[in-house]
């Protein structure tokens, strides 16, 4: 009984052993023992999952043997011949790729690469001129599970395009060193609604058997793939007009792109890499507010290789509404103008210098500005090893110990209460004045503790309360009842926009003085409403008052001088403390003495770098001043426990549920217990309750 069972088990083992010990890679290599250029990898069951072939000299039977292993998921076929002499005019190598029609037998194939790599050299280093291969009809047909297709060194035909369009599960297409004739019909490619990645790269040295003298990438081919989210284009000779509504990531050679306006229409574009081979005007970036990540890379073709020339970034500009969080500068010379632009990027948290030099045009102030980035958080700056200047001063760092946003109220109420008690007697007169100012980001009622001493005879008490309600602009650039006030020094137009020109400031054009300053001819009007409550017996009166300041409007000057006796600077210029017109920080900064009545000025409430503190002043009304003197809205700027400077902006209690000295007050009518926690029960509101930081019973 037992012997029979053992014999039966042994028989089953012998039957199963070929499957247990299958090694299809070794089997295939044994079959092609005279061809050493086969590389393969088995899966866990011993079946081939990856196969790489150097197919020079392969017959159709050889290919069919390889295609009999239907477990293959990844296949790379390479035709390789680079042995032609220098400046060989006509490489003698077969261009027909016509033995691959049984690829359809690979039912599990997901990744396919056909690489026709045949060229001769056109210089003493590396200037390859390629021969292009031709894929036979029906080669790419019926590859139903294919997800990734790479075709290198191919001269495309209409049959190739039609067969590619039948690959319903294709997700990635990569073509490199190719010819795509503009006469081909690409409409059928629009059926490929799963393709998300597209890469199209030319060889800059042209081709032997191309019908074109230019390196054309047809716009019709690019724009057929409407589902693409990531696109890479390099070495094209034609003007592009990219129209891909789902594009999120783009790598683009700027060569021949005189018109870059199509970039503005790519609403979903978030990551942009631009490659430049010569001097380029980068002012076009000013209109790309949708970009979160930007990389700028300079290249040049020198002795056959793409090398970094370290070009200058001419007219690098971004708008005030830009969304840039990461900036990579690759192989550029960094100068003062670049650093000035970088310091004004309000959302920047990552800056990378990769192979970039700090040029001789970068002064000490620029170096110090870069150094000051170490105080920002979150912030990461990476200087590559060949960033040559001031290596000891500028260090690679990463500040990540801060995260999260704080939601704050959009209403700030400032209440000033002055209580004067005057007491008269036969012998003496005394006057006591107490002033209390409270600023909060929520609607709060604060009672000032005031002691009034009453002595015999006559007592008169006068209470004056002035309340200014300031609603900071909740939508940048907007103002009015729904949005709030403009920043200091700006006017609110009839249509609810903040600005400084007559279109915004002229009373005759509808300027709204309750939301900013206004002017009319030689008059500048600021409206202040003061409510005075006077208690005398049982009589109460409220008197609103409006104050209008009138000043003489200075005449324009064309002498370069400005100020009293000279006049106003030309439009767009500032009048310095010493009476000269200009546009730099020394002319325009209020803290440097800029004369706003004779030109524009940079307001003292925030510096051009977004700095704040004793030397710079306060942040805009909806921002906080961090411990290190930078304006922002997140917890690292607003958290009291992190050193937020309340005298120069808002601050918030960032320790939820905590209160007390160094932390802040409880909210929503809660009490601060003696142990520094917020709550509403008797444990919080009775014995030991800290009245300075919340309600108490």
Q: Topology of this protein?
A:
Blueprint: H1 2-20, H2 24-31, E1 38-42, E2 48-54, H3 60-66, E3 74-81, E4 96-97, E5 111-121, E6 128-131, E7 134-135, E8 148-155, H4 158-164, E9 172-179, E10 197-201, H5 219-223, E11 230-234, E12 249-253, E13 271-276, E14 293-298, E15 300-302, E16 305-307, E17 311-312, E18 326-330, E19 332-334, H6 336-343, E20 350-354, E21 357-358, H7 364-372, E22 379-383, E23 397-399, E24 412-424, E25 429-440, E26 458-470, E27 491-492, E28 498-499, H8 502-505, E29 518-520, E30 523-525, E31 533-536, E32 539-542, E33 549-550, E34 574-575, E35 581-582, H9 585-588, E36 624-625, E37 631-632, H10 635-638, E38 671-672, E39 678-679, H11 682-685
Parallel strand pairs: 2-3, 3-5, 4-7, 5-8, 8-9, 9-10, 10-11, 11-12, 12-13, 13-14, 14-18, 17-19, 18-20, 19-21, 20-22
Antiparallel strand pairs: 1-2, 5-6, 15-16, 22-23, 24-25, 24-26, 27-28, 29-30, 30-33, 31-32, 34-35, 36-37, 38-39
Give a description of the structure:
Its cofactor is Co(2+). This is Chitin-binding type-1 domain-containing protein. Residues 525-549 have a biased composition (Low complexity). The protein is of the alpha/beta class and 697 residues long. Among the domains are: 20-238, Leucine-rich repeat, LRR (right-handed beta-alpha superhelix); 469-553, no CATH class. It is 11% helix and 26% strand. The strands form eleven sheets. It has a 16-stranded mixed beta sheet that branches. It has a three-stranded parallel beta sheet with strand order 17-19-21. Strands 25-24-26 form a three-stranded antiparallel beta sheet, with no helix packed on it. A hairpin with a 2-residue loop joins β15 and β16. α6 packs parallel to α7 (364-372). The longest helix is centred in the N-terminal third of the chain and has 19 residues, at 2-20. Mean pLDDT is 76; it is low at 12-20, 302-308, 403-474, 525-553 and 604-608.
């Amino acid at each position: 009984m037992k012997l029979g069972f053992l014999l039966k088990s042994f028989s089953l083992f012998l039957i199963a052993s070929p499957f247990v010990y299958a090694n299809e890679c070794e089997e295939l290599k044994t079959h092609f023992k005279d061809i050493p250029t086969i590389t393969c990898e088995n899966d866990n069951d011993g079946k081939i999952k990856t196969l790489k072939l150097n197919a020079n000299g392969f017959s159709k039977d050889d290919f069919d043997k390889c295609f009999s292993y239907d477990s293959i998921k990844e296949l790379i076929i390479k035709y390789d011949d680079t042995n032609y002499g220098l400046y060989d005019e006509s490489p003698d190598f077969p261009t027909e790729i016509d033995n691959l029609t049984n690829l359809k037998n690979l039912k599990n194939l997901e990744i396919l690469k056909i690489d026709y790599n045949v060229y001769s050299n056109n210089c003493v280093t590396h200037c390859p001129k390629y021969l292009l291969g031709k894929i036979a009809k029906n080669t790419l047909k019926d590859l139903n599970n294919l997800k990734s297709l790479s075709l290198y060194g191919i001269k495309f035909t209409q049959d190739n395009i039609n067969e590619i369009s039948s690959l319903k599960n294709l997700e990635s297409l990569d073509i490199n060193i190719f010819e795509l004739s503009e006469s081909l019909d690409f409409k059928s490619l629009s059926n490929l609604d799963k393709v998300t990645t597209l890469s199209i790269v030319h060889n800059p040295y042209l081709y032997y058997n191309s019908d074109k003298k230019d390196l054309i990438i047809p716009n019709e081919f690019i724009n057929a793939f409407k589902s693409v989210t990531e696109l890479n284009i390099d070495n094209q000779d034609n003007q592009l007009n990219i129209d891909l509504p789902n594009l999120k990531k783009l790598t683009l050679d700027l060569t021949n792109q005189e018109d870059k306006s199509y970039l503005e229409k790519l609403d979903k574009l978030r990551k942009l890499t631009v490659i430049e081979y010569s001097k380029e005007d980068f002012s076009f970036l000013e209109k790309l507010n949708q970009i979160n990540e930007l990389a700028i890379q300079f290249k040049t073709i020198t002795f056959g290789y793409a090398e970094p020339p370290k070009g200058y970034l001419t007219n690098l500009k971004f708008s005030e509404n830009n969304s840039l969080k990461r900036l990579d500068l690759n192989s550029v010379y960094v100068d003062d103008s670049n650093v000035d632009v970088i310091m004004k990027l309000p959302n920047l948290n990552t800056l990378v210098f990769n192979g970039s030099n700090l040029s001789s045009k970068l002064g000490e102030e620029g170096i110090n500005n870069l150094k000051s980035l170490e105080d920002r958080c979150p912030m990461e700056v990476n200087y590559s090893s060949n960033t040559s200047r001031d290596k000891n001063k500028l260090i690679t760092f990463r500040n990540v110990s801060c995260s999260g946003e704080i939601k704050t109220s959009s209403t700030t109420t400032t209440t000033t209460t002055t209580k004067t008690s005057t007491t008269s007697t036969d012998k003496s007169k005394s006057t006591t004045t107490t002033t209390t100012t409270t600023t909060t980001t929520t609607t709060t009622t604060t009672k000032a503790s005031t002691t009034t001493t009453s002595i015999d005879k006559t007592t008169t008490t006068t209470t004056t309360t002035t309340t200014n309600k300031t609603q900071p602009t909740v939508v940048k650039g907007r103002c009015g009842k729904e949005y709030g006030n403009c920043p200091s020094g700006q006017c609110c137009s009839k249509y609810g926009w903040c600005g400084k020109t007559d279109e915004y400031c002229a009373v005759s054009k509808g300027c709204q003085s309750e939301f900013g300053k206004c002017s009319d001819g030689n008059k500048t009007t600021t409206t202040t409403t003061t409510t005075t409550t006077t208690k005398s017996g049982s009589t109460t009166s409220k008197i609103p008052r409006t104050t209008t300041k009138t000043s003489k409007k200075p005449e324009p000057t064309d002498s370069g001088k400005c100020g009293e006796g000279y006049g106003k600077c030309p439009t767009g210029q500032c009048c310095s403390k010493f009476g000269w017109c200009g546009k730099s920080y020394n002319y325009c900064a209020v803290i440097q003495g800029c004369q706003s009545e004779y030109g524009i000025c940079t307001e003292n409430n925030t510096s051009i770098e977004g700095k704040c503190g004793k030397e710079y002043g306060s942040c805009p009304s909806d921002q906080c001043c961090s411990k290190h003197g930078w304006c922002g809205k997140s917890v690292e700027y607003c958290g009291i426990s992190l050193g937020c400077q309340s005298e120069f902006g808002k601050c918030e209690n960032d320790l939820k549920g905590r209160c007390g000295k160094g932390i802040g007050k409880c909210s929503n009518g809660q009490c601060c217990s003696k142990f520094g926690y917020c709550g509403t029960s008797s444990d919080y509101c009775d014995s030991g309750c800290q009245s300075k930081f919340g309600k108490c019973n």
